[in-house]
Amino acid sequence: MPIANHTDQLTALVEAGVREHVFPGAAWAVGTVDHHAMGAAGRLTPETSSAAMQVDTLFDIASLTKIISVWSLVGQLVKQNRLRLDSRLADLLPGTAGYALAPITIFQLLTHTAGLPLRARLRASYGDVYDDIVRGVLREPLEGIPGQAVEYTDRAALILGLVIERLLGMPLDVALAEHVLQPLGMTATGYGPVAPRHGQLVAPTEYCDEAGAHLAGTVHDFSTRLLGGVCGISGLFSNVPDLQRFLRAMLNPHGDVFDAAWVRESLTVQTGDLQPSRGLFWHPAAGTGPQDDVWCHLGFTGTAMWISPRRGRYAVLLTNKLYYTREFDRINDIRRDFMRCAFDL
Fold first, then answer.
1. Domain Beta-lactamase-related: where (predicted)?
2. What was the pLDDT predicted at 199?
C-alpha cells in the first residue's frame, strides 16, 4: 500500500489515543527512503489552553537514546576495528579488572544476555557522586549467568556508554554530536536539559514532586538525572523529523554513520532459542514473526520506532503518555495497531 494511503488510519489511531486519555498528544511518521506521511494530534497537556502538538515537537525519547547514541557509536567503533563483539570489558574498562564484569563481552551487553542487575538502585547503592556510581557499577556482582537468559536492563547501555567514552576520548554527548547527529543533520536532537525556544515546543512527561510540576525539557529517567543528564541509558530529546533522518539513513546505509553490515547484523536474531529474541539492541516488534522483518525499540515515556529493511519502511510514534500514568497496556495496544497499519501487517 502506498505510504500516503496510511494517513487517515494512522491519524484516527492517534486521535483515539488522545480522546481516550492514553496520552495528551502525539507526533508520528511512516515512510521509506523517498516518501513519507506524518502528523500530530492533541496538545502538550490536557488543558484546552495548552499548545497544539506539532510534528516537530521535542520529546524526551527515553530508551530510544540507547539506539540513537550507544548503538550507533558502537557500530562505528566496530567498523573501524577499534571494538569487537567478543571484546571483554576487562580489556576496555580497567575498573572491571578482578570483578564479575571483567569477562562480559560487548555482544552480551548488546543482546541483554550479560546477567546484569535488572534494577537501577544507583543512588541507594552508590550515593550521588558520579565517580562513586561508576566505580560501583563496574564492580557489582552479576545477578544471572551470562549467555543463559535475555533480560533487558539499563545497565548494558550505561556500561557501553562508558566504553565509548574511553575509546573515543570524549564525553558521550560530544561523541554523539560529532559522529552521528551532525553528519545526519539531526539539528534538533541532543541531551537535555532543553530550554524552551521560540517556536519550539517540548512535550512534558510525569509530575515530579521535587520540581512541583510535570517535567518538561528535563530528562524523566532518574538514573540519567543522577549521572548528570548524559549517559547511555536515556537523556536525549528529539522529534519526528530527526528520527526520520536517522531511520532513512539506516534503510540506505552508506557513508560514515551506518555500516550496512552493522545494520544487517543488528537486525538479525542473535540470541538463538532464548526468549524474548534479540538482535543487537534492537528486537523484533511484538506480535511479529521472522517473515515480517519488523524491528523495534521502545521508550518508557511513550516513544517508539520501528524499521523493516525487507519492506524498506520505517515508522515513528512519539507520545507523552507518562503525563497520565505508568500503566502500559493501553499505549501498547495503540503501538501494536500503529505498527501493523504502518507495515501493512
1. 11-334
2. 64
Question: Contact 343/315 with Cβ under 8 angstroms?
Answer: yes
Q: Which residue has the cell 563483539?
A: 85
Phi-psi region of 167 (alpha: psi -120 to 50; beta: other; left: phi over 0): alpha
CA dihedral 313, 157, 143, 96 (to 10 degrees): 140
CB 53 within 8 A of CB 59: no
Q: Which residues pair with 80 in a beta bridge?
A: none
Sign of CA dihedral 232, 233, 237, 239: positive
Per residue in 151-192, pLDDT (tens digit) is: 999 999 999 999 999 999 999 999 999 999 999 999 999 999
CB-based contacts of 54, cutoff 8 Å, min separation 6: 27, 40, 201
Kindly state the helix (H) or strand (E) to which residue 41 belongs, with its residue range: strand 36-42
Contact 60, 203 (CB under 8 A): yes
